[in-house]
Amino acid sequence: MSEQLDRRNFLKMGGAVLAAGTAGLTGSAIAAGKAKSAAVATGMKAALPPAKGPRLVIVGGGTSGLTIAKYAKKEYPKFDVVLVEKRDMYSSCFSSNLWYSGVIDLEFLADHSFLDAARNNGYLYFNATVTGLDRTSRTLATSEGDIQYDFLVIAPGISYDYARIGVKDPGAQAALRQTFPGGFISPTEHVTIRRKVQEFEGGVFVQTVPSGNYRCLPGPYERACMIASVFKKNRIKGKVLVLDANADITIKAAGFHAAFNELYKGIIEYKPSSEVTGIDLEKRTLKTEFDTIKFDDAAIYSNIRASTLIEHLGLMDPKSAQKEARISQLHYNLIGDERVYVTGDSRPHPYSKSANTSNTEGKYVAKVLAARAQGKDIAWYSPRTICYSMVSADPLEAISVDAGYVLNKEGTAIGGFSPDTKLFENRDGAKGKATLEWARGMYRDMFEA
Ligand SMILES: Cc1cc2nc3c(=O)[nH]c(=O)nc-3n(C[C@H](O)[C@H](O)[C@H](O)COP(=O)(O)OP(=O)(O)OC[C@H]3O[C@@H](n4cnc5c(N)ncnc54)[C@H](O)[C@@H]3O)c2cc1C
Predict the structure, then answer these.
(1) 30 with 337: CB under 8 angstroms?
(2) What is the enclosing helix (H) or strand (E) of 258?
(3) Rounded average pLDDT over 266-293
(4) Among 217, 242, 300, 440, which residue has the fewest nearby CB atoms (within 10 Å)?
(5) Which of 112, 216, 387 to mutate to test the pocket of ligand 1 (most atoms within 8 A of CB)?
(6) Whether the predicted model's global pTM rises above the 0.90 cut
């Protein structure tokens, strides 16, 4: 069974951000020459060979950065590509929910090497943390020295915005992230959540769902299913309490409601319109507008924003509710600077913040960069949001969505879903198998030649 996604659904998925993104397009341009640099260069040169062609530096070896590094080199072999990534071990965020229920092992997520990706695809992996940017001299400052660029892509992902769930004190934010991590950014959070699920002895396990255009719309609901499947299998006397800030499940609602009611009755309790407004870590209580809820353990997924790096480097749109970058929705360059691009989940577009979106968008941005390096331009085309969600671990069963996007009437910004967008909400084994195949395909595309 499939269902067309309509404009109402589109607005639910990303409409709030659409307004901010469009505003950014019409605002006055920041002249590249007047670029505000976030930090002075270190003065130490990064240990890199001299560039053999126009140097394209990419920040962030996630789905977006890895895709662009590979495909920009393919599109324009003269590019001298350097991927700057602060992690020295890759492990994917996507598919991590499946690890909690034993559908996959850790190797599935982490047996992928930045070194191999770079060697297989003719670019350099530079293990460093970006700390500053001077757009006037085209210098990127990193913990391992300065890098000159001809073109720069910044794809650092997201950060949590704990203030939006009432946790404003930096100390309390750090304690919350350490005690009840959201599991939507870094692999170390996944390890902690898996241990919590495996060791859970009973009671209430809370999974929160934030408002706004958060990363991976179906992710928290899929996770609730995977945790509930562990409780069901191990006969744990406990429940997963899904506290959703939204009025209903934000995507694939019929499919998730069916799974909650038919597979996990009495194990998953779903509470809509339950925005978290405060947390007491000592007492293990959460506050919503109407309730105070006691819990035994939790994965607290707060609201999100673009990576703090975007703000730190002076690339943030001050009008953006999620502090996303001030870029052209069509070409991804910073408004007024065609040398600097922001992609992936730090973008202001009302797209679903997902790996498939970042991957297909990355291939388009690679073409934009190749064209611009040769003084040309290309026509916009849509990324694709294909997203599977496993709802049953044994037997494997999933639901999915396949969405594209169209421009507004003026052709200046994203206007809504494309007419061929479809939801597949009847869970079955074929989609369960396809969920794993999709992930394997993503790893192949990012790490192999
Ligand atoms: C639990 C979970 C389930 C998901 N499930 C799915 C799914 O089923 N399907 C799907 O399509 N998507 C899914 N996603 C979403 C998907 O993983 C992300 O949307 C996607 O990976 C975003 O890619 P990105 O490149 O923008 O960000 P990321 O993949 O987060 O990459 C950002 C990179 O930038 C690096 N970085 C940040 N700051 C710096 C710095 N200062 N210097 C150097 N490097 C830096 C980071 O280390 C990181 O490697 C899921 C995500 C999670 C967490």
Answers:
(1) yes
(2) helix 253-263
(3) 97
(4) 440
(5) 216
(6) yes
